[in-house]
Structure formats: structure tokens, C-alpha cells
TrEMBL record:
Keywords: Amino-acid biosynthesis, Aminotransferase, Branched-chain amino acid biosynthesis, Transferase. InterPro entries: Class-IV_PLP-Dep_Aminotrnsfr (IPR050571), P-loop_NTPase (IPR027417). It comes from Lutibaculum baratangense AMV1. One of its GO terms (molecular function) is transaminase activity. Belongs to the class-IV pyridoxal-phosphate-dependent aminotransferase family. It comes from the Bacteria. This is Branched-chain-amino-acid aminotransferase-like protein 2.
Length: 247
């Protein structure tokens, strides 16, 4: 971008550490954040039933072209980083992708079994499109083809196991100085959180930093969820092969 700002599009599926990552970057004095800016447009265009659907649509921007303009707009004075938390499954037909070529794209992944085990605790109805892995692979391929190399990928387990090391490595890849303030934040809901925060963000709202990774494996998935996990695992494995490791 001509203004010299670093616009980071962080591509994740649901039930990852995407909100904790937004907290982490939002703790930087040089950074502004955006929480799932295409969510309202996605709900309005699909009619899909999600928790707090009407509230999300009422509070958000339903015209994806206006969302794109916001994502590329000049930053407030004194800020030089724009951290955008995106859900890959929001990028449906009718929502343009050309703007993706004008930002710095990073991909946040999590093991599909853990994603699905967490997802159904908040919303029982789920299929492969809801958890975002296939769209994540599509966007990854688009960015990699344009760059001629794999864009940055981080695995949530690596972040939780070594927050400082993994975030330092990510910042280095982005040409950004690591700031230790990224490791801790005050608990609570933020004005920058989406209106859906009260339904989805209880754990992050109670947190003060990254928690250690789960010490035990999740319980075996029932057959219908295991089928979804197996269907999306190749996409996860493909991106994981390019993940950034702590130095």
C-alpha cells in the first residue's frame, strides 16, 4: 500500500485462537484491529441461521464493497498496522477477493478434530463449509500463486506452546518488531469486538494472555463429525507443512 501501512489479513476458521490473536495484536500501540468485518454481509447474503444473526446484521456492514473500502482505508494518526481478523467461510460467492492482493495475508490453523469438538459446543449444526478449512486452502493457493511462495502460516498449538517464540518469528516474517505487550492483555470485552462477543468470547474475555495448549487429546468425535474432520484434514495438512516455527 502506498501509505506504508501494514494491513494484516489473518485468515482463520472458527473455534481457533483467532480472538486471542486479535487481543495480542490489539495490545500494540501502533495497531488497530477489525473483528470479522464480513460477518454481517455473510449472514445477510446467505440467510444462514447463526447465533445472534439479527443483531450481527443490524450492527454490521452488509455491503461487501463498503467492507473492502474500510479494509483498505487510511489508518488513524499514529497507527501503522491494521490487524484484520477474518473467517475464511465468510468469503462466499458475491464477496470480492481482489482486495486480498493488496494486504499481507497470514493463515491461522488448528487441528480439525479440536475445531469440531469445540464448535459443536456452541452450535450443533455443522458441515465442512462451516469450519472454513476448504476456503482457507483456496485463499492460501491464491496468495501463494501471486507471491510465488507460501505465505506465513501459524498453528494455534505452536502459539500456545511458545507464544513469545512463535509471535517473534511471525513478526520477523512480517517485517515488524516484536513487542512483549503482545503476550498479555486486560480481561473483558472490547469496543472493537463484534456484537457476537457475548455468545462466543467467554474464554477470551476471562483471559489475560495465551493459555497453555490442552494437555489431553479431545474425546473421540462421533461418526458424523469424524467424517467432516477427515474431509478437511488434507487442507489442514497442506497448510501445516508451511507453518512458521519458533526460532
Amino acid at each position: 500500500m502506498r501509505d506504508g501501512a501494514l494491513r494484516i489479513a489473518m485468515w482463520s476458521g472458527p473455534r481457533n485462537i483467532s480472538t486471542a490473536m486479535m487481543r495480542s495484536f490489539g495490545s500494540r500501540a501502533d495497531t488497530v484491529v477489525s473483528d470479522e468485518p464480513f460477518y454481517a454481509a455473510y449472514l445477510a447474503m446467505t440467510g444462514i441461521d447463526h447465533p445472534m444473526k439479527n443483531e450481527v446484521i443490524a450492527a454490521g456492514e452488509t455491503d461487501p464493497r463498503k467492507v473492502e473500502e474500510m479494509l483498505l482505508a487510511p489508518l488513524p494518526a499514529g497507527r501503522r498496522v491494521f490487524y484484520q481478523k477474518h473467517m475464511t467461510h465468510h468469503m462466499i460467492e458475491g464477496i470480492g477477493r481482489d482486495w486480498i492482493d493488496r494486504v499481507t495475508n497470514v493463515f491461522l490453523i488448528r487441528d480439525p478434530n479440536r475445531v469440531l469438538a469445540s464448535y459443536v459446543r456452541k452450535r450443533e449444526a455443522v458441515d465442512a463449509s462451516d469450519v472454513g478449512f476448504l476456503k482457507q486452502e483456496e485463499i492460501f493457493d491464491r496468495v501463494a500463486d501471486r507471491l510465488g511462495e507460501a505465505p506465513p502460516v501459524i498453528d494455534s498449538h505452536d502459539v500456545l506452546a511458545d507464544p513469545e517464540g512463535t509471535l517473534t518469528a511471525l513478526c520477523e516474517r512480517l517485517g515488524l518488531d516484536f513487542d512483549r505487550c503482545m503476550l498479555a492483555w486486560e480481561p473483558g470485552i472490547r469496543t472493537t469486538d463484534g456484537v457476537w462477543a457475548h455468545h462466543w468470547y467467554q474464554s477470551v474475555a476471562a483471559s489475560r494472555g495465551f493459555s497453555p495448549p490442552p494437555a489431553v487429546e479431545p474425546a473421540p468425535l462421533p461418526p458424523h463429525l469424524l467424517h467432516i474432520a477427515e474431509a478437511v484434514r488434507p487442507a489442514y495438512d497442506k497448510l501445516r507443512a508451511h507453518r512458521i516455527a519458533a526460532g
